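Page 47, continued from p. 46.
Same chain as before, 284 aa.
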Amino acid sequence: MIQIFTDLAANLPQRVVEQYDIRLLRLTYTVNGVESDPDVPFDAIPFYEAMRKGADVKTSMPSPGDAREAFVPLLEQGDDIICICLSSGISGTYGMLRMVAGELSEEYPNRQIRIIDAKGASLGEGQHAIEAAKLRAQGKSIDEICGHVIRQVERMNQYFVVDHLKYIRKTGRLWGGAALAGQLLQIKPILFGDEEGHIVMRDKVRGKKRAVERLAELYAEKHADGTEPVGIAQADCPADALHLQHLLRQAGQTGPINVVGYEPVTGSHVGPGTLALFFYGHKR
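Result:
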């Protein structure tokens, strides 16, 4: 059997994880030095309110030991593994998993372990895991699944608007000087994930309403097929997500629009008020 893995940053709701039999590698976080309890459901409202009030949130990727603990029992029972992980442009997760996969491939030479860099986060990562699971259900081979996912990674467009750059600037995940953009006169930066999965500046507009409209315009300009799934992620701004969903329908999106709340790890990096859009184009 082929086992499909991704990580918590893929932003997949539990019902989706269960529906498609996707396994998650956990990423952890602390708030003011207190580590989160993985058995307690995430409550977005107090989490983002704490961030607005200046809470110190720190995140950690899975350890090599965590990865081995997740992979080894499956390899022992004769399964192969595909793991689609958070962008190497913003996290060391991909490099760590490649190292672990190399070690395990020597220990289990008859098994296949494929690590795929999603070059994105949130549903720009999670949608690939869903597609991999669907292809597995169709009986596709591991080569066919990985080939499709890698092609889709190069088509995934990822745009987002943040309420304030201070959160993402603090993590050092802005690329090419984008952190120099300010918040003067209610200027809202439109960021996107480039070909290497780095976060870079795409545009600047005035006001949140115009920023949401700009996301819909980018979809209209760049999407390949209105029947393909689109993702929206919001960090405590559900009204903005609803408005964007309406604008996407006006722009020709007839396929599914999946709306999720940002989970705490990636949400802590982009900050409260962030709205993100994920869709397939002919290229990034």
